[in-house]
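Worked example 2:
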Amino acid sequence: MNIDFQRIEHPAVYTIEEMKALDFPAHSTVAKNLFLRNGNGKEHYLLVVEEDQNIDLKEVKTMIASSRLSFASEERLEKYLGLAKGAVSPFGLLNDKQNDVTVYVDSHLKDANVIGLHPNDNTATVFITFEQLLQFIKETKHEIHQLNFA
């Protein structure tokens, strides 16, 4: 895809707090990635937001005009994105060949110098720009919906 990136290997991390404790490049932002499902489990969503963004699922439900939202199970994460718990990432969209997952990106990420994302594995972080993130998502044939959290 001709996307330049920086990759940093590190011990496995499972939370944003663990990611923040790592020695990442100055002026980088780590993305928080949430894999959600609607009330009946027929719709699945990937939210890519700033690391410090507090997410209220009731607010997100209203923003995306969905029924009740909850975190998808590990089984659904594996089925739709081919990922394990702790490795949720937009790069998992490569595994969603049927485009079953709807992608929402926090518009505040555009202000980040570079964004850190797991490369489908939580023992490394890849840093790319916001534009490169959007390019990648488009290359996977997923439509990008931007959300603007206050």
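Residues 6-147 form a domain with the YbaK protein fold (CATH 3.90.960.10). The mean pLDDT is 94.
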